[in-house]
Amino acid sequence: MTDSEQRALGIPENPEDWKIFPRNLTARAAYIVPGNPPTTRPETGVDNSFPGLEFDVRNLAKFFFPGTYFEVYSDSGARLRALRPESQAARWRALGLTDADVERGLYIWAMKGVTAPGQDPDDPPAIDFHDTTGLQVWAKAVALYPDTRVGLVIGPAPGAATTPPEDAMACLDAVWKQGGDGEIARDGDGDGALRWAVLAGPRARYLNEQGVIDPDVYQPGELIQTLCTPWMYDFRDCQCFYWASNKPDVVTSEDGKYEYLNFQRKNWLVEPQTTDVAGDYSARRLREIDYAEMMVDWQQLRPVSNGRERGQDYVPPPGPTDVTPGTLDWVRTELEYLATVEHALAVQYLYAYYSVATTRDRPSDGFNAARIWQAATEVFHIAISEMRHFRWANEVLVLLGGEPTIGRASMLGRRFRVPFSLQGLSSAQLQWFVDVERPSRSTAEGLDGMYTGILDALRADETLDADDRRRSVEIVKLIIDEGESHYERFSTAQRMLAGLSQGAWLRSDYGRTTAIRGVTGGDSVPGVPVAERAGTDRAAMQALADEQYRTILELLGVAFQDTSAEGGEALRQAISLMWSLDDTVRRLADRGITPLFALPEGLATTPPPARTQADRAQALARIRAEAEERLDAIEQAAPAPMVTTLASAFRADLERVVRAMAQDALSSSV
Amino acid sequence: MIGDRPLGAELRVVRSAAGAHLFAADGSRLFDVPEPLADAVEAAVAAEGAPDGSADGGADAVPRPDTDALRRVVAAALDTPTGRRFVDDRPIAPPPLAAISLNVAQACNMACGYCYADEGRFGGNARLMGLDVAKASIDRLIAESEPGGRITVGFMGGEPLVNRPLVHAATAYAREAAAKAGRRVRFSLTTNATLIEPDDARLFAENDFAVSVSVDGPRALNDRLRPMRSDAGPGPASSYDRMVRGIEVLNRHGRPAHLSARITVTPRTGRLLPVLEHVLGLGFDDAGFAAVLVSPDPSLAFGPAEFDTFLGHMAECGEAAKAALMAGRRFPFTNFETALHEIHRGSHRPYPCGAGAGYLSANAEGGLYACHRLVDDPGYAFGDVHEGSDVAARADHLAAAHVDRQEPCRSCWARYLCGGGCYHEVSRRGRLGCDYIRGWLAFCLSAYAELSQARPDYFVDPARYFDGPRESALSATTVATAV
After folding, report:
1. What is the pLDDT of residue B59?
2. Which chain B residues are Cβ-neighbours of A17 within 8 angstroms?
3. Of B314, B350, B348, B288, which Cα lies nearest the Cα of B92?
4. Cβ contacts from A onto B, under 8 A
């Protein structure tokens, strides 16, 4: 179609007449603007941040002198890194400047050019860059007026440490006056090492004829190449837990010899923090890696795990899989023991919890009161979690064909060999709690380590029913995972109490303080249980708490044997009775009475077999009847109102729980 | 993609005080274009319509050179980078239910001559929905809705408040059931407002109700079209007076979340602007018109000849609303404002409404139908509330109803804004109002172009556009004199 045809048909000739502007939202959304949006252009950039958001503005001025590329990050001055682009560098090569000279290191020593208003463009001042950092040279280069002439003196020593020789400065003046390109001075007969060079020419225009940043000068990526430096700068600057949690401030040396090392220290091999540096910010900064090092040598920062530095290539310690997995018999024996340990820990933690002077609900005021409550509540929750482990260990035991146990270990931990003991939540006791729950990946250490061995044995076993093994493995994994949270929780409790003295949170009238050397270290152990004088109301309340404790254990013994789905419900019922016990013990503690958590004489740690519905119903009836008898005896011995109130509340709860458990036993058999 | 489709089916030139505009049907996109381009498109579209035109895309058709060149240029500017269309002729699958209306009373205390529902009886006997059916309907809605989503329970009639106890009980039940099922529920109710009691007002205010009141204008006009039934019970003879009393009850005892007026227009209504101003003056949040197309009394339904006049009257209201918006004043004329916002968003849908898709209506026995107007119509029966909606039938309906499969819709530039017309009206009377719909949409497109240029803020955040307290644009005096 010709233009005249087009005209005849009424189609606009002028391309402007085809201009289409999207008006409503779908029209706008469907239109993709060609090229970069205006916000990416330098003139619309956000310039109040440094180095910039769109690109690093410093990179622009690194080419301020045509044919040369200066690097400006070093404190020792602005270094000539390359002669490029070739088309512009040709004139400097013509003067005799070579890549070999550049390679040996050349710095700007002085610059002549208009950098401030009022300066004579025909003879502007020359700036001596002695004692000047690279970025300061850059700042002067940025200040150069457009369309003006610039003269440089460059030489083979860092500019910051050099005063330009007089003959070079005289040469700069002469070249300027003559309007020449420059001159080069070398040692010897002019073929030796470069002494200095004077170069003169126009200040770079930065933009090409089309008005865009000259693509012949700036290579792709060159303008944005240092954009990540804010991150590096911040990483260096942000300390004292200001940075995200994954940056440590203080680390332990790999061999554990130095407990406190500055993570950012210059000498990463070992440079222990000395006291003179510790308290002096500036001195410490000098011994840390600087910004440039953080940019180019960040890899000297070493991997840190659990607060300890590791080798450059971190290899986790070998897991317990190297050990020959134990047999099923070993697993059962181990679990029988571990279940009793969980039981013991639950009671120890509970006892310690009640020693803290706090309330069940978070106190509404008082900073310290809230922290104490928080710490105590952590301990309480761990106690509950240990009860859960007690139950889980038993569940696995029964799955593996073993007998459940309601026994309580008298000695805790293969490694610790600490006897079971009830104490208040002293700082020392809390530390011991932290230690015993500290995660380990070795079967030789810690509580979870013992479970790790069981896990390996279960995984390796090929004789078990596949479903039973899967279920057992899952339960053991749960115990290990929860164990790690115990460590975190105790550590939290420790942090909450860190600023307080022990007396601020311990009940003053809770038990007695013994002078004997305690198992957890320290010369005095507070909050040790005291048996109240027989025949008193207080003794009756203690007896009541013990009765509740005993009954709960007996009911658990029945529930543990039921592995059906309904068994879980029976267990929940038995566990619900613990709230009744909790209520009683709180009342005791408020009156300065310690619970005893005494294991009744004659209590069979392996509960009587109750695998059938009939057996279970019978066992439940017996447990209740015996408990009622003992409650009667307690009430008769001390018919105080508090004792009666607590006893009747427990009777009601017991009746409800036993009835529910019996129903479950019934439904599970149908 | 413009492709080789008829330009007239894809493009429409609109002119406004802001210049020339090109509306692209695909995606309902509106562009500003120079006059010469607009002229060229109009010429090309006219040529397509000419007897020797090649626009029908027949196999032996030879494209005319001007159209061809124009297509290239327009396609370059308008086609999306991927070449995909915003809407194609594939039907949607039945989505989860979002709303159900309960025809709680297929009976009414009024006897409007034009009522499509035949005084609520839909041609059958008057009957009331039982609570068991209402509960089952709500359960059905929840069961077939999107988990965690929002659902709407609508009460329709007849006059829903004839069955007041059920409205109250069903609302309470829906609240409880929705909370249990994790759905957020809101309600709507369409009423003649003559039976509203203080308890109802409180129910509406407390339960996020959108209440739509049928009112036809000033007393004389309203009462002529909307008489009370002879056995309507004690109260004024004037339905207008009863309705005003109902609004007063709402104002005194609790306003619903939204209170709108629906004005039914018959060929006898006359000029609409005075009617609209009068109704807005009664204190509604907004008001809009609906023309009668289906009526037991044919003289009250629009015929093809009467639409021109109707368009003129609508445009008069639209001009008044546009002037008010330009001046920053409220003039909540829903036909106009809804169109403006749909055009702004570029709303494009191949169906006229959600009937049979996300919306169903239950009759008194729990039968499910496409919508409240099609209740008891076996052609639009989609299962029942006990057994569940008939998904296959809904899918068939959505496949058949797609506007690209309708004639003459598929070659109409307005098809994705209009959707093909109300199923009820089309099934009863065919497509009578197409020219009116195109005329009205062209008016709204033009008004949008002007408003979006002069008052862009109105579209960014309509709620904040108006300064000062929320009140009707009409002064109290106008209202007083009008009443």
Report:
1. 44
2. 34, 36-37
3. B350
4. 83
